[in-house]
Amino acid sequence: MDTEIDYRDRIDELKTVFMKMPTYKDGYISTKDFTVLCKETKYERTEKQVQGYAAYWDKYHGGKMSMENCLAVYCSVYKTSELARQYAILADFDKNGFISSEEFLAIASLMSSHDTRLEGKSFAQFVQEADTNRDGKVSIDECAAWIEKQIN
Fold first, then answer.
1. Entry pTM
2. What is the number of other CB atoms lying within 10 angstroms of the CB of residue 7?
3. If phi over 0 gives left and psi between -120 and 50 gives alpha, with beta otherwise, what is residue 26?
4. In angstroms, rounded to a whole number, what is the distance separating the alpha carbons of residues 20 and 62?
């Protein structure tokens, strides 16, 4: 069975486990529950990756993880293009459709827990590589395409 389909088929199970986390409230959990959530949902990640995710959510999302975002990442984890899109969407904190320097640094730190080749990438390098229409800004779509290249 295709693993991507497997995660989509398990959506109700994932929701149930998420809502049983000790800190669950109003569609969110604390990053304190993330390690347990990963184990209970068989979301296999290294300790470094789990710590990287928790640090990202602590710093950029106030230590809270939404069920909506977790489910989106779970369902896309084995489809690179969708995973890249989810990362790009998560990076756009201000929801203006573009990735700022601060937003890039946040998502780059998260992604580097998966691939150390991303450590040390500067925002200028990112813009140079990702800004395909050369307008001086990186859109969600451009960011997603760039992320997909980096993780392939």
1. 0.67
2. 22
3. left
4. 20
